[in-house]
């Protein structure tokens, strides 16, 4: 599926229906063309390569999934690999959606294999404000990449809420579920960091090299996105540290609970062993034991065992084991 829009300062916004007309539009330096394609076939990509003059390696890059954002420079255009991200809070699963972008002097081509609603929002916004095209392809590129980077922040907000829930649950009855949730979140943050770190490097390249295809105004806007990616990476690292601390806190809670159980078992075992010692002595049934024929021997033995138990419990209470 293709959506092709052309803007000319005198003719305004035009919708291009035929791919074969693209080369005629981009031949005019005053015209800006944005082609958005979802899951194009190899035949369609060959047509695009013919119309725009794309290198075969760049076309192969589209059909080869990339897990890391990057920037490749070709004569007359740039090839960018970037990623939107989606998040399933129930499964705590992050899925990247690759977005490949060709940036020429007066055109942008965006390619993706799944539907991206934000691109429709950008297209609608630019169609309502065609004067924005006056800023050139650099501002259009900024708007697309800005929407891409902004997709990370709601996910980080949801992860922040998850962290608060985990920290609260550690000290409650549901603490047993905490390790699984912690490790799921750690995997989520690892995926985000694998994407966000090279994305930060990509913007660093775009803003620090001399880019003849991008105006100084566009580079200034891209620096703002670069700052956003720095915030994203720093936030991810902070959340990973918090998760590590939460895991340590969980292990500490479990250790304290185990110590409490061991103390209780120790107290019970000490009392029972001491009481059992008295019972064992009077249970030997030797013939010449004075207490065996004593009328009050049985109550005496029971009282002695009760006294030993009370004294031991009082002692453990004093040392705060109970």
Account of the protein in words:
The protein is an alpha+beta fold and 322 residues long. It is built from 9 helices and 7 strands. A 7-stranded mixed sheet has the order 2-1-3-7-6-5-4. Helix 6 (152-170) packs parallel to helix 8, helix 7 runs antiparallel to helix 8 and helix 8 (216-282) runs antiparallel to helix 9. The radius of gyration is 36 Å and the shape is rod-shaped. The termini are far apart.
Characteristic key phrases:
322 residues, alpha+beta, 9 helices, 59% helix
What oligomeric state best describes the polypeptide chains here? single chain
Question: Whole-number average pLDDT?
Answer: 84
Classify the beta-strand content into a percent band: 15-25%
Rg over C-alpha atoms, rounded to the nearest angstrom: 36 Å
Widest β-sheet, arrangement of strands: 2-1-3-7-6-5-4
- Poorly predicted runs: none
Instruction: Give a quick account of the main beta sheet: strands, pairing sense, barrel closure.
Output: 7 strands, mixed
Structural class by sheet pairing and helices: alpha+beta
Strand tally: 7
Secondary structure tally, helices: 9
Taken from the alpha-carbon principal axes, the silhouette is rod-shaped
- Give the N-to-C terminal Cα separation: 72 Å
Helix amount: 55-70%
The secondary-structure element order is EEHEHHEEEEHHHHHH
């Amino acid at each position: 599926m293709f959506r092709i829009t052309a803007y000319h300062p005198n003719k305004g916004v035009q919708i291009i229906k035929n791919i074969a007309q693209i080369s005629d539009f981009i031949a005019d330096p005053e015209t800006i063309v944005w082609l958005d394609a979802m899951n194009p076939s190899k035949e369609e990509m060959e047509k695009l390569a013919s119309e725009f003059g794309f290198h075969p390696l760049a076309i192969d890059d589209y059909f080869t999934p990339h897990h890391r954002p990057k920037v490749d420079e070709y004569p007359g255009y740039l090839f960018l690999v970037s990623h939107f991200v989606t998040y399933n809070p129930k499964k705590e699963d992050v899925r990247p959606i690759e977005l490949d972008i060709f940036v020429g002097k007066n055109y942008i081509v965006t390619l993706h294999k799944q539907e991206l609603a934000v691109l429709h929002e950008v297209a609608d916004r630019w169609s309502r404000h065609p004067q924005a095209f006056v800023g050139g392809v650099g501002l259009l590129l900024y708007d697309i990449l800005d929407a891409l980077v902004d997709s990370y922040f709601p996910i980080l907000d949801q992860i922040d809420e998850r962290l608060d829930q985990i920290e609260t649950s550690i000290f409650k009855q549901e603490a047993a579920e905490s390790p699984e949730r912690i490790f799921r979140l750690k995997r989520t943050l690892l995926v985000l960091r694998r994407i966000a770190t090279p994305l930060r490097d990509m913007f660093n390249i775009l803003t620090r090299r001399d880019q003849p295809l991008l105006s100084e105004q566009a580079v200034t806007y891209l620096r703002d996105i670069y700052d956003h990616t720095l915030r994203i990476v720093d936030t991810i690292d902070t959340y990973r540290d918090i998760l590590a601390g939460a895991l340590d806190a969980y292990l500490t809670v479990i250790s304290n609970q185990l110590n409490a159980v061991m103390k209780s078992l120790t107290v019970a075992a000490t009392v029972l062993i001491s009481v059992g010692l008295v019972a064992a002595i009077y249970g030997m049934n030797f013939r010449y034991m004075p207490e065996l024929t004593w009328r009050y021997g049985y109550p005496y033995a029971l009282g002695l065992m009760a006294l030993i138990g009370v004294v031991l419990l009082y002692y453990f209470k004093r040392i705060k084991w109970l």
